[in-house]
Protein backbone atom coordinates (compact mmCIF):
# COMPACT_ATOMS: atom_id res chain seq x y z
CA UNK A 1 0.00 0.00 0.00
CA UNK A 2 1.23 3.47 -0.85
CA UNK A 3 2.58 5.47 2.05
CA UNK A 4 0.75 8.77 2.33
CA UNK A 5 2.67 11.89 1.39
CA UNK A 6 3.96 14.26 4.04
CA UNK A 7 1.47 16.72 5.46
CA UNK A 8 1.70 19.72 7.76
CA UNK A 9 -1.47 20.55 9.68
CA UNK A 10 -1.61 24.14 10.91
CA UNK A 11 -0.57 26.45 12.31
CA UNK A 12 -3.73 26.58 14.41
CA UNK A 13 -5.00 29.50 16.48
CA UNK A 14 -2.47 28.63 19.19
CA UNK A 15 0.39 28.70 16.68
CA UNK A 16 0.74 24.93 16.79
CA UNK A 17 1.57 22.81 13.73
CA UNK A 18 1.71 19.03 13.43
CA UNK A 19 3.88 17.44 10.75
CA UNK A 20 3.15 13.92 9.55
CA UNK A 21 5.38 11.79 7.34
CA UNK A 22 5.11 8.08 6.57
CA UNK A 23 1.99 7.87 8.73
CA UNK A 24 3.73 9.14 11.90
CA UNK A 25 4.02 12.52 13.53
CA UNK A 26 7.53 13.89 12.96
CA UNK A 27 9.42 16.75 14.60
CA UNK A 28 10.06 18.46 11.32
CA UNK A 29 8.22 18.28 8.01
CA UNK A 30 10.17 17.23 4.93
CA UNK A 31 10.53 19.83 2.18
CA UNK A 32 7.56 20.09 -0.12
CA UNK A 33 5.03 18.67 2.34
CA UNK A 34 1.40 19.52 1.62
CA UNK A 35 -0.27 21.91 4.05
CA UNK A 36 -3.70 21.84 5.65
CA UNK A 37 -4.73 25.27 6.95
CA UNK A 38 -6.54 25.46 10.28
CA UNK A 39 -7.76 29.06 10.26
CA UNK A 40 -8.98 29.84 13.76
CA UNK A 41 -9.39 26.14 14.58
CA UNK A 42 -7.46 24.15 17.15
CA UNK A 43 -5.49 20.94 16.59
CA UNK A 44 -6.44 18.17 19.02
CA UNK A 45 -5.82 14.42 19.10
CA UNK A 46 -8.36 12.29 17.23
CA UNK A 47 -10.68 10.38 19.53
CA UNK A 48 -10.38 6.62 20.07
CA UNK A 49 -13.50 4.51 20.48
CA UNK A 50 -11.99 1.53 22.27
CA UNK A 51 -14.94 -0.88 21.97
CA UNK A 52 -17.70 -0.85 19.40
CA UNK A 53 -19.76 -3.00 17.03
CA UNK A 54 -19.92 -1.78 13.44
CA UNK A 55 -22.42 -4.54 12.66
CA UNK A 56 -25.02 -2.66 14.71
CA UNK A 57 -24.68 0.44 12.51
CA UNK A 58 -28.20 0.10 11.09
CA UNK A 59 -29.92 0.27 14.48
CA UNK A 60 -30.33 4.03 14.14
CA UNK A 61 -32.65 3.38 11.19
CA UNK A 62 -35.53 2.11 13.27
CA UNK A 63 -34.71 -1.23 14.89
CA UNK A 64 -38.17 -2.56 15.85
CA UNK A 65 -38.55 -2.91 19.64
CA UNK A 66 -38.49 -6.55 20.73
CA UNK A 67 -41.86 -8.06 21.59
CA UNK A 68 -42.24 -9.12 24.37
CA UNK A 69 -39.83 -6.60 25.96
CA UNK A 70 -36.70 -8.30 27.36
CA UNK A 71 -36.62 -8.53 31.17
CA UNK A 72 -32.89 -9.21 31.62
CA UNK A 73 -29.55 -8.79 29.87
CA UNK A 74 -29.53 -12.41 28.56
CA UNK A 75 -33.00 -11.75 27.13
CA UNK A 76 -31.74 -8.55 25.44
CA UNK A 77 -28.99 -10.63 23.79
CA UNK A 78 -31.45 -13.33 22.71
CA UNK A 79 -34.20 -11.09 21.40
CA UNK A 80 -32.11 -8.30 19.82
CA UNK A 81 -28.40 -8.77 19.22
CA UNK A 82 -28.29 -12.52 18.58
CA UNK A 83 -31.12 -12.18 16.10
CA UNK A 84 -29.64 -9.13 14.41
CA UNK A 85 -26.23 -10.78 13.95
CA UNK A 86 -27.83 -13.90 12.39
CA UNK A 87 -29.90 -11.76 10.00
CA UNK A 88 -26.88 -9.89 8.60
CA UNK A 89 -25.91 -10.53 5.00
CA UNK A 90 -23.01 -9.05 3.07
CA UNK A 91 -24.88 -5.99 1.81
CA UNK A 92 -26.39 -5.07 5.18
CA UNK A 93 -23.09 -5.57 6.99
CA UNK A 94 -21.17 -3.47 4.47
CA UNK A 95 -23.79 -0.72 4.68
CA UNK A 96 -23.77 -0.79 8.50
CA UNK A 97 -19.97 -0.67 8.70
CA UNK A 98 -19.68 2.18 6.18
CA UNK A 99 -22.41 4.17 7.93
CA UNK A 100 -20.73 3.77 11.33
CA UNK A 101 -17.22 4.50 10.00
CA UNK A 102 -18.40 7.63 8.18
CA UNK A 103 -20.22 8.94 11.26
CA UNK A 104 -17.18 8.20 13.41
CA UNK A 105 -14.88 10.26 11.19
CA UNK A 106 -17.37 13.13 11.00
CA UNK A 107 -17.48 13.09 14.83
CA UNK A 108 -13.67 13.31 15.07
CA UNK A 109 -13.04 9.64 15.88
CA UNK A 110 -9.82 8.48 14.23
CA UNK A 111 -9.68 4.88 15.59
CA UNK A 112 -12.43 2.30 16.04
CA UNK A 113 -11.80 -0.87 18.04
CA UNK A 114 -14.40 -3.19 16.54
CA UNK A 115 -15.75 -6.45 17.91
CA UNK A 116 -17.65 -8.33 15.24
CA UNK A 117 -20.09 -11.25 15.09
CA UNK A 118 -22.21 -12.47 12.18
CA UNK A 119 -22.61 -16.28 12.40
CA UNK A 120 -23.77 -16.68 8.79
CA UNK A 121 -20.84 -14.69 7.38
CA UNK A 122 -17.95 -15.82 9.55
CA UNK A 123 -15.31 -15.97 6.80
CA UNK A 124 -16.63 -13.05 4.75
CA UNK A 125 -17.32 -10.52 7.49
CA UNK A 126 -13.97 -9.10 8.56
CA UNK A 127 -12.88 -8.31 4.98
CA UNK A 128 -16.07 -6.20 4.66
CA UNK A 129 -15.39 -4.43 7.96
CA UNK A 130 -11.78 -3.78 6.96
CA UNK A 131 -12.82 -2.49 3.55
CA UNK A 132 -15.34 -0.09 5.10
CA UNK A 133 -12.81 1.29 7.59
CA UNK A 134 -9.73 1.44 5.39
CA UNK A 135 -11.75 2.67 2.39
CA UNK A 136 -13.17 5.63 4.29
CA UNK A 137 -9.87 6.12 6.11
CA UNK A 138 -10.57 5.39 9.78
CA UNK A 139 -7.96 3.44 11.73
CA UNK A 140 -9.33 0.13 13.03
CA UNK A 141 -8.54 -2.80 15.29
CA UNK A 142 -10.81 -5.62 14.16
CA UNK A 143 -11.71 -9.03 15.56
CA UNK A 144 -14.29 -11.75 15.06
CA UNK A 145 -15.80 -12.64 18.44
CA UNK A 146 -15.44 -16.42 18.48
CA UNK A 147 -18.36 -18.14 20.19
CA UNK A 148 -19.96 -21.58 20.45
CA UNK A 149 -23.49 -20.32 20.99
CA UNK A 150 -24.91 -21.16 17.53
CA UNK A 151 -23.00 -24.10 16.05
CA UNK A 152 -20.63 -25.23 18.81
CA UNK A 153 -16.85 -25.71 18.76
CA UNK A 154 -16.58 -25.64 14.99
CA UNK A 155 -18.15 -22.19 14.96
CA UNK A 156 -15.51 -21.02 17.43
CA UNK A 157 -12.68 -22.50 15.35
CA UNK A 158 -13.97 -20.69 12.28
CA UNK A 159 -14.24 -17.42 14.23
CA UNK A 160 -10.63 -17.69 15.37
CA UNK A 161 -9.48 -18.51 11.83
CA UNK A 162 -11.29 -15.38 10.59
CA UNK A 163 -9.16 -13.35 13.01
CA UNK A 164 -5.99 -15.02 11.72
CA UNK A 165 -6.73 -13.93 8.16
CA UNK A 166 -6.75 -10.16 8.83
CA UNK A 167 -3.69 -8.75 7.09
CA UNK A 168 -2.02 -5.83 8.86
CA UNK A 169 -1.95 -2.58 6.87
CA UNK A 170 -1.10 1.03 7.74
CA UNK A 171 -4.64 1.53 9.12
CA UNK A 172 -5.62 -1.95 10.29
CA UNK A 173 -4.53 -4.52 12.83
CA UNK A 174 -6.28 -7.80 13.55
CA UNK A 175 -6.96 -8.91 17.12
CA UNK A 176 -8.25 -12.27 18.34
CA UNK A 177 -11.87 -12.01 19.48
CA UNK A 178 -13.88 -14.03 21.94
CA UNK A 179 -17.53 -13.23 22.46
CA UNK A 180 -17.55 -13.75 26.24
CA UNK A 181 -16.61 -16.40 28.77
CA UNK A 182 -20.20 -17.64 29.07
CA UNK A 183 -20.53 -18.71 25.40
CA UNK A 184 -17.24 -20.59 25.02
CA UNK A 185 -15.53 -23.72 26.33
CA UNK A 186 -12.15 -23.89 28.06
CA UNK A 187 -10.67 -25.22 24.80
CA UNK A 188 -11.77 -22.18 22.81
CA UNK A 189 -10.42 -19.82 25.47
CA UNK A 190 -7.04 -21.59 25.41
CA UNK A 191 -7.03 -21.56 21.59
CA UNK A 192 -7.71 -17.81 21.53
CA UNK A 193 -4.78 -17.06 23.84
CA UNK A 194 -2.47 -19.33 21.86
CA UNK A 195 -3.50 -17.77 18.54
CA UNK A 196 -3.00 -14.23 19.86
CA UNK A 197 0.52 -15.17 21.00
CA UNK A 198 1.29 -16.84 17.69
CA UNK A 199 0.17 -13.74 15.77
CA UNK A 200 1.81 -11.27 18.16
CA UNK A 201 -1.52 -9.68 18.95
CA UNK A 202 -4.01 -9.56 21.84
CA UNK A 203 -7.46 -10.83 22.76
CA UNK A 204 -10.58 -8.62 22.72
CA UNK A 205 -13.44 -10.03 24.81
CA UNK A 206 -16.56 -8.99 26.75
CA UNK A 207 -15.98 -9.60 30.46
CA UNK A 208 -18.55 -9.49 33.27
CA UNK A 209 -20.83 -7.12 31.39
CA UNK A 210 -23.75 -8.61 33.32
CA UNK A 211 -24.03 -10.71 36.47
CA UNK A 212 -25.00 -13.67 34.21
CA UNK A 213 -21.38 -13.96 32.95
CA UNK A 214 -20.16 -14.20 36.56
CA UNK A 215 -22.83 -16.77 37.47
CA UNK A 216 -21.82 -18.90 34.47
CA UNK A 217 -18.11 -18.81 35.39
CA UNK A 218 -18.96 -19.79 38.98
CA UNK A 219 -21.06 -22.71 37.79
CA UNK A 220 -17.97 -23.86 35.90
CA UNK A 221 -15.91 -23.64 39.11
CA UNK A 222 -14.13 -20.30 38.64
CA UNK A 223 -14.23 -17.19 40.82
CA UNK A 224 -15.42 -15.19 37.79
CA UNK A 225 -14.94 -14.79 34.01
CA UNK A 226 -11.80 -12.65 34.34
CA UNK A 227 -10.22 -15.25 36.62
CA UNK A 228 -11.21 -17.97 34.11
CA UNK A 229 -9.71 -16.12 31.11
CA UNK A 230 -6.54 -15.41 33.07
CA UNK A 231 -6.12 -18.98 34.33
CA UNK A 232 -6.63 -20.39 30.81
CA UNK A 233 -3.88 -18.09 29.52
CA UNK A 234 -6.09 -16.09 27.17
CA UNK A 235 -4.94 -12.56 28.02
CA UNK A 236 -1.54 -11.63 26.59
CA UNK A 237 -0.35 -8.15 27.67
CA UNK A 238 -2.43 -5.45 25.99
CA UNK A 239 -5.61 -7.54 25.78
CA UNK A 240 -8.87 -5.60 25.70
CA UNK A 241 -11.60 -6.38 28.22
CA UNK A 242 -14.90 -4.71 27.46
CA UNK A 243 -17.12 -3.70 30.41
CA UNK A 244 -15.82 -5.44 33.57
CA UNK A 245 -18.95 -4.18 35.36
CA UNK A 246 -19.05 -7.14 37.73
CA UNK A 247 -15.32 -7.75 38.23
CA UNK A 248 -13.93 -7.42 41.74
CA UNK A 249 -11.61 -4.46 42.34
CA UNK A 250 -8.82 -6.91 43.14
CA UNK A 251 -9.26 -8.78 39.82
CA UNK A 252 -9.30 -5.47 37.92
CA UNK A 253 -6.14 -4.27 39.64
CA UNK A 254 -4.32 -7.54 38.95
CA UNK A 255 -5.38 -7.64 35.28
CA UNK A 256 -4.31 -4.00 34.84
CA UNK A 257 -0.93 -4.79 36.40
CA UNK A 258 -0.63 -7.69 33.93
CA UNK A 259 -1.07 -5.27 31.03
CA UNK A 260 -4.78 -5.63 30.23
CA UNK A 261 -6.92 -2.69 29.11
CA UNK A 262 -10.47 -2.31 30.35
CA UNK A 263 -13.04 -0.44 28.29
CA UNK A 264 -15.83 1.42 30.04
CA UNK A 265 -19.03 1.79 27.97
CA UNK A 266 -21.21 3.97 30.20
CA UNK A 267 -24.15 4.64 27.84
CA UNK A 268 -24.50 0.97 26.92
CA UNK A 269 -24.27 -0.19 30.54
CA UNK A 270 -26.95 2.30 31.54
CA UNK A 271 -29.23 1.34 28.66
CA UNK A 272 -28.85 -2.42 29.34
CA UNK A 273 -29.29 -1.82 33.10
CA UNK A 274 -26.30 -4.03 33.91
CA UNK A 275 -24.93 -1.68 36.59
CA UNK A 276 -22.18 0.94 36.87
CA UNK A 277 -18.57 -0.26 36.41
CA UNK A 278 -17.36 1.12 39.74
CA UNK A 279 -14.41 -1.25 40.23
CA UNK A 280 -12.64 -0.17 37.01
CA UNK A 281 -11.03 2.67 38.96
CA UNK A 282 -8.81 0.00 40.58
CA UNK A 283 -6.53 0.38 37.53
CA UNK A 284 -5.38 3.31 35.39
CA UNK A 285 -5.67 1.21 32.23
CA UNK A 286 -9.27 2.11 31.35
CA UNK A 287 -10.30 3.47 27.96
CA UNK A 288 -13.72 4.58 26.74
CA UNK A 289 -16.00 2.83 24.23
CA UNK A 290 -19.51 3.21 22.86
CA UNK A 291 -20.42 -0.49 22.49
CA UNK A 292 -22.18 0.33 19.20
CA UNK A 293 -23.88 3.56 20.30
CA UNK A 294 -23.36 6.51 17.94
CA UNK A 295 -19.63 7.22 17.73
CA UNK A 296 -19.74 10.60 19.49
CA UNK A 297 -17.06 10.28 22.15
CA UNK A 298 -18.01 13.67 23.59
CA UNK A 299 -21.48 12.29 24.36
CA UNK A 300 -19.91 9.14 25.82
CA UNK A 301 -17.61 11.18 28.05
CA UNK A 302 -20.53 13.35 29.21
CA UNK A 303 -22.45 10.18 30.12
CA UNK A 304 -19.39 8.90 31.99
CA UNK A 305 -19.18 12.12 34.04
CA UNK A 306 -22.90 12.08 34.84
CA UNK A 307 -22.96 8.40 35.84
CA UNK A 308 -19.70 8.66 37.79
CA UNK A 309 -21.15 11.55 39.80
CA UNK A 310 -24.33 9.59 40.47
CA UNK A 311 -22.25 6.65 41.68
CA UNK A 312 -19.71 8.61 43.71
CA UNK A 313 -16.84 7.51 41.41
CA UNK A 314 -14.17 10.23 41.47
CA UNK A 315 -11.38 8.41 39.60
CA UNK A 316 -12.47 8.58 35.97
CA UNK A 317 -10.13 11.20 34.51
CA UNK A 318 -8.16 10.34 31.40
CA UNK A 319 -10.32 7.49 30.10
CA UNK A 320 -10.90 9.02 26.66
CA UNK A 321 -7.19 9.82 26.33
CA UNK A 322 -6.21 6.33 27.53
CA UNK A 323 -7.44 4.91 24.22
CA UNK A 324 -4.32 6.35 22.56
CA UNK A 325 -2.11 4.14 24.69
CA UNK A 326 -4.17 1.07 23.82
CA UNK A 327 -3.98 1.75 20.08
CA UNK A 328 -0.32 2.80 20.11
CA UNK A 329 0.64 -0.61 21.54
CA UNK A 330 -0.90 -2.34 18.53
CA UNK A 331 0.86 -0.08 15.99
CA UNK A 332 4.19 0.18 17.84
CA UNK A 333 3.78 3.94 17.99
CA UNK A 334 4.49 6.51 20.68
CA UNK A 335 1.56 6.67 23.09
CA UNK A 336 1.41 10.46 23.50
CA UNK A 337 -0.79 11.73 20.65
CA UNK A 338 0.58 14.53 18.43
CA UNK A 339 4.12 13.89 19.75
CA UNK A 340 6.88 12.74 17.37
CA UNK A 341 6.62 8.98 16.80
CA UNK A 342 2.88 8.87 17.46
CA UNK A 343 0.30 7.87 14.87
CA UNK A 344 -0.30 10.49 12.20
CA UNK A 345 -3.86 11.16 13.31
CA UNK A 346 -5.35 14.49 14.41
CA UNK A 347 -8.49 16.58 14.38
CA UNK A 348 -8.99 20.30 13.89
CA UNK A 349 -11.92 21.67 15.89
CA UNK A 350 -13.52 25.08 15.96
CA UNK A 351 -15.49 25.45 19.18
CA UNK A 352 -17.46 22.18 19.26
CA UNK A 353 -17.43 21.52 15.53
CA UNK A 354 -15.12 19.05 13.77
CA UNK A 355 -13.50 20.92 10.86
CA UNK A 356 -10.75 18.60 9.58
CA UNK A 357 -9.84 14.99 10.36
CA UNK A 358 -6.48 13.50 9.40
CA UNK A 359 -5.74 9.78 9.76
CA UNK A 360 -2.32 8.35 8.93
CA UNK A 361 -1.43 11.64 7.28
CA UNK A 362 -4.45 11.47 4.94
CA UNK A 363 -7.11 14.20 5.04
CA UNK A 364 -10.39 12.29 5.42
CA UNK A 365 -12.70 15.09 6.58
CA UNK A 366 -12.15 18.62 5.28
CA UNK A 367 -14.27 21.62 6.21
CA UNK A 368 -16.69 19.30 8.04
CA UNK A 369 -17.29 17.10 4.96
CA UNK A 370 -16.21 13.53 4.40
CA UNK A 371 -13.81 13.53 1.45
CA UNK A 372 -13.28 9.75 1.17
CA UNK A 373 -16.91 8.91 0.36
CA UNK A 374 -20.31 10.42 -0.33
CA UNK A 375 -21.76 10.58 3.20
CA UNK A 376 -25.34 11.22 2.05
CA UNK A 377 -25.23 8.17 -0.24
CA UNK A 378 -23.70 6.03 2.51
CA UNK A 379 -26.50 7.03 4.91
CA UNK A 380 -29.22 6.51 2.26
CA UNK A 381 -27.92 3.04 1.42
CA UNK A 382 -27.82 2.16 5.12
CA UNK A 383 -31.45 3.23 5.55
CA UNK A 384 -32.39 1.07 2.56
CA UNK A 385 -30.53 -1.98 3.90
CA UNK A 386 -32.06 -1.56 7.36
CA UNK A 387 -35.59 -2.30 6.13
CA UNK A 388 -34.50 -5.67 4.74
CA UNK A 389 -32.55 -6.49 7.89
CA UNK A 390 -35.59 -5.89 10.13
CA UNK A 391 -37.70 -8.09 7.86
CA UNK A 392 -35.16 -10.96 8.05
CA UNK A 393 -34.88 -10.53 11.84
CA UNK A 394 -38.64 -10.86 12.22
CA UNK A 395 -38.46 -14.32 10.67
CA UNK A 396 -35.85 -15.57 13.14
CA UNK A 397 -36.56 -16.96 16.58
ZN1 LIG B 1 -19.77 -4.98 23.15
From TrEMBL:
Keyword presence, Aminoacyl-tRNA synthetase: no
Keyword list, A-Z: Hydrolase
UniProt xrefs under InterPro entries: Amidohydro-rel, Metal-dep_hydrolase_composite, Metal_Hydrolase, MTA/SAH_deaminase
Molecular function (Gene Ontology), one example: hydrolase activity, acting on carbon-nitrogen (but not peptide) bonds
Domain Amidohydrolase-related: 43-297
Superkingdom: Bacteria
Ranges in a coiled coil: none
Entries under Gene3D superfamilies matching the protein: Metal-dependent hydrolases
Similarity comment: family membership: Belongs to the metallo-dependent hydrolases superfamily. ATZ/TRZ family.
Name the UniProt record assigns to this protein: Cytosine/adenosine deaminase-related metal-dependent hydrolase
